[in-house]
């Protein structure tokens, strides 16, 4: 029997979101019904609302969530009602060419729930990143549920479902930051600060944070930045070279998604250094680089999708590091809000007033 619940819906492009009653089916084969406890307000949700990802309106927004499994469908193993889980959008298939080559973090056929959640009139909803967690309950593929220690509150655990994992993974998984490295991070929002925290965890000794907002640079220091650069008043490339003995950083992470910023990141790395793009560009953007410099500088230019993470491997480890006091997930939470406050949270995000607003459900 379908569950009638409240959820945040984007009905059309650029229109304010609304809290509506929707229907969530009981889980079918391979699916799980999850009672959502908390969900972060991520920039990706704003992209959906603005039509920057697709036009499959109406969207059921929210994806950065943690909660408790309420029911599972036939054929589900390793997951049971009562399990505390973080939701992820990389439910690996185990059968595609990436999985068969032992690289499941590149899975090309990740699973989502087969059944549709709908408006009361039967209109199908498109769940953000296959999750749709600005809702009291959501239906996902069982593989989208990663069990973790319930000692970590949902307000912080859910952040690993997207932005924080993307940043930490960009540093550790994609960038391969290791002890003694120098790292520069362009863009000190949630993802950039997570990259800084990840670089610190990995043992980087010099971490340069770059942003246009002095407030964000102060936040970056709290996550482990050893140097800060306001690129509105200082040349960031020269500042990064000055902080690294004149050479440039071993790993430079671009968490903005702008061609001009990427070019700065490219020029701010040391010879044989690595540039990691984790900021999301718009479809119309183009990038031009001196081809000889691409060759002559050596190293690697990489893109990081979801921090090249494997949720079953990475989420439990990061929760343990949080419990040990080594990963300050709580510092990402600027405010907690109710289900009726998501539109206001988007406005605060636009203004740069928050790292993360987190919607909490009773």
How would you sum up this structure, described in words?
The protein is of the alpha/beta class. It folds into 2 domains: 3-161 and 328-360, Quinone Oxidoreductase, Chain A, domain 1; 167-304, Rossmann fold, CATH 3.40.50.720. Helices cover 26% and strands 26% of the residues. It contains 11 helices and 18 strands. The strands form 3 sheets. Strands 3, 5, 6, 9, 10, 17 and 18 form a 7-stranded mixed sheet that branches. It has a 6-stranded parallel sheet with strand order 13-12-11-14-15-16, with helices on both faces. Strand 14, helix 8 (259-267) and strand 15 (269-277) form a beta-alpha-beta unit. The longest helix has 13 residues, at 190-202. The protein starts with a strand and ends with a strand. The model has no long low-confidence stretch (mean pLDDT 96). InterPro entries: ADH-like_C, ADH-like_N, ADH_Zn_CS, ER, GroES-like_sf, MycoS_dep_FDH, NAD(P)-bd_dom_sf. Belongs to the zinc-containing alcohol dehydrogenase family. Its cofactor is Zn(2+).
């Amino acid at each position: 029997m379908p569950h009638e619940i409240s959820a945040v819906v984007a009905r059309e492009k650029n229109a304010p979101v609304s809290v509506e009653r929707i229907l969530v089916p009981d889980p079918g084969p391979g699916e799980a019904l999850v009672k959502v406890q908390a969900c972060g307000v991520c920039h990706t949700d704003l992209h959906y609302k603005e039509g920057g990802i697709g036009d499959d309106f109406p969207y059921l927004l929210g994806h950065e969530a943690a909660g408790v499994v309420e029911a599972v469908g036939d054929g589900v193993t390793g997951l049971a009602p009562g399990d505390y889980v973080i939701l992820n959008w990389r439910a690996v298939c185990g059968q595609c060419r990436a999985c068969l080559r032992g690289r499941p973090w590149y899975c090309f056929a990740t699973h989502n729930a087969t059944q549709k959640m709908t408006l009361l009139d039967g209109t199908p909803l498109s769940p953000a990143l296959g999750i749709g967690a600005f809702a009291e309950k959501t239906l996902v593929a069982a593989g989208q549920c990663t069990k973790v220690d319930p000692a970590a509150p949902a307000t912080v655990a859910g952040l690993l479902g997207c932005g924080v994992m993307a940043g930490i993974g960009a540093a550790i998984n994609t960038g391969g930051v290791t002890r003694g490295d120098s790292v520069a991070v362009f863009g000190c929002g949630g993802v950039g600060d997570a990259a800084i925290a990840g670089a610190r965890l990995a043992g980087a000794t010099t971490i340069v944070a770059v942003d246009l907002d002095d407030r964000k640079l102060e936040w970056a220091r709290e996550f482990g930045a050893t140097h800060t650069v306001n690129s509105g008043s200082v040349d960031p490339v020269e500042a990064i070279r000055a902080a690294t003995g004149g050479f440039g950083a071993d790993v430079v992470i671009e968490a903005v998604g702008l061609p001009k910023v990427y070019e700065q990141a490219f020029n701010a790395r040391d010879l044989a250094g690595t540039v990691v793009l984790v900021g999301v560009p718009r479809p119309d953007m183009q990038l031009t680089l001196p081809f000889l410099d691409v060759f002559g500088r050596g190293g690697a230019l990489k893109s990081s999708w979801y921090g090249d993470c494997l949720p079953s491997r990475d989420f439990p480890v990061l929760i343990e590091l949080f419990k040990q006091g080594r990963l300050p997930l709580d510092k990402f939470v600027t405010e907690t809000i109710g289900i009726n406050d998501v539109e206001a949270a988007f406005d605060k995000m636009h203004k740069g007033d928050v790292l993360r607003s987190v919607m909490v459900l009773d």
